[in-house]
Amino acid sequence: MRFVDEYRDADKARALSAKIVGLCEPGRQYKFMEVCGGHTHTIYKHGLEDYLPESITLVHGPGCPVCVIPMGRVDDAIALAEQPDVIMTSFGDMMRVPGGRGSFFDSKAAGTDIRMVYSPLDALKIARQNPDKHVVFMAIGFETTAPSTAMTALRAEAEGIENFSIFCNHVTIIPAIKAILDSPDLRLDGFIGPGHVSTVIGCRPYEFIAAEYDKPLVTAGFEPLDILQSVYMLLLQLSEGRSEVENQYGRVVPWDGNMVALRAVEQVMELRPYFEWRGLGFISHSALRMKEHFARYDAERHFSLPGVRVADPKACQCGEVLKGVLKPWECKVFGTACTPETPIGTCMVSSEGACAAYYNFGRFSRERVRQASQPQPVTIEAGARKA
Amino acid sequence: MCLGIPGEVIEILPESPDLAKVDVSGVKRAINIGLLTDDPPQPGDWVLIHVGFALSKIDEEEAQAAMNFLEGIGQAYEDEIEALLSSQIDEQAPIDEKG
Ligand code: SF4
Question: Using a CB-CB distance cutoff of 8 angstroms, which residues of chain A are in contact with residue B60?
């Protein structure tokens, strides 16, 4: 475990915390968005907000691929699963996502053949094993996942498989960040950039955030110290009057990304003119679809889909949570009508969703404690104190 | 599902060179290494695995850090390992030359 300590060391956390405090301008409030759900997870799990001064607020972004799937797309997928001789496949996280007509689990209980897979290659294997059925893979995910779907389509083509198609719901992070920057609801001072998305796209696509919006962005790793370090790097930029893209996670994220992965996506998919995001509405050029050349592997061309737009339930405030305008526990149904077992909104479904992260780690009670300005516990390691 | 899981490459499968057998905390599974053709991993290398594909090469230190993050998040990690256990992409059909 010798390596582990390096990213968890409470002394280092305290030292960073002190440096962070030292960089904050008196009287100024800072709001940084962590785009990625994995970061949200670390922040709640380790109570990182307790290591930050009150003047710094971390807000959650839209970087949870399950959370942004709109109800209508779930209904479309269920309509696909209801076609004769279809086996629908997707990642386990999709199973509980509520659509207008229920979830995959509900549909399965009603008799459709919906299977969880770990990899799109597993879906392809099911197609090989069931030549008399048509296997649809519901593809979801950001740039991290799209290359795997693209490679699977290329593999299907190379093998000449006929009974397989992809219901493509891949989304791209940059237009979502842009939509948030353009939204009047939120004034941000900088971004903690997503880690794994950046292993694929690299750091260059974020440069417009620094250049056009004058905000710093630091791509970050997933350990507590990675995130504290990134907050420090953001503050340092602000204090020096800089807005740049910096890479805190250089040990995994290459500046130029993964060219092989980008080429695979480019070969198989193209940008949609627009795509609906749950809670965020339609965002132009924010999602991928199969290219004409791969029409035979495109479930949307194979089958006719209802394509109905379904409004989110009235009680649901996922849109505000995904934009960072509301904290999860500020949603009226949080923890009461909406729980991980019976989610109303998507942010409660995936472990990367902000609501599920809050719920699972009991931070909502901490938030209330914090509001009542009581002394707060610190959870990185026993003995740590707020600097 | 967005998690990246670290695994150690044990062998490149001789029948399908785009597949490698990896060890993920004692679980041995085949994964696809086709996204790393610019710098193919060798046995003994560590990779970050996402939905059955190696996404990047990492060093052992980062592998430990990533594992540590995953173990800390509990259920989601267990679900991911369980999903990985159910995965069987080790067999591939031969490539149709006409295709
Ligand atoms: S508590 Fe439920 S409905 Fe409210 S924002 Fe979170 S996931 Fe959406």
Answer: 3
What is the radius of gyration, based on Cα positions, of chain B? 14
What are the beta bridge partners of residue A282? Answer: A276
Burial annotation B87-98 (CB, 10 A radius, 16+ → b, else e): bebbebeeeeee
Q: What share of chain A is helix, strand, coil (3-state, %, to 5)?
A: 45, 20, 40
Q: How large a percentage of chain B has pLDDT more than 90? A: 35
pLDDT of residue A376: 43
pTM: 0.87
The answer to whether the CB atoms of A221 and B65 lie below 8 A apart is yes
Ligand 1 mutation pick, A318, A329, A367, max ligand atoms within 8 A of CB: A318
Q: Is the pLDDT of residue B92 over 70?
A: no
Flag residues of chain A having pLDDT under 50.
1-4, 364-366, 368-369, 372-387
Ligand 1 nearest atom to the CA of residue A332, by list position: 4
Is pLDDT at B80 greater than 80 in this prediction?
A: no
Confidence at residue A385, expressed as pLDDT on a 0 to 100 scale: 34
Structural domains of chain B sorted by starting position, each given as residue range(s) with its CATH number in brackets: 5-86 (2.30.30.140)
For residue B7, the cross-strand partners are B47
Angle between helices A363-371 and A354-361 (to 10 degrees): 80
A170 contacts: CB under 8 Å, gap ≥ 6: A139, A140, A141, A142, A143, A145, A146, A149, A269, A287, A288
For residue B26, the one-letter residue type is: G
A131: burial class by Cβ within 10 Å (0-12, 13-18, 19+)? exposed
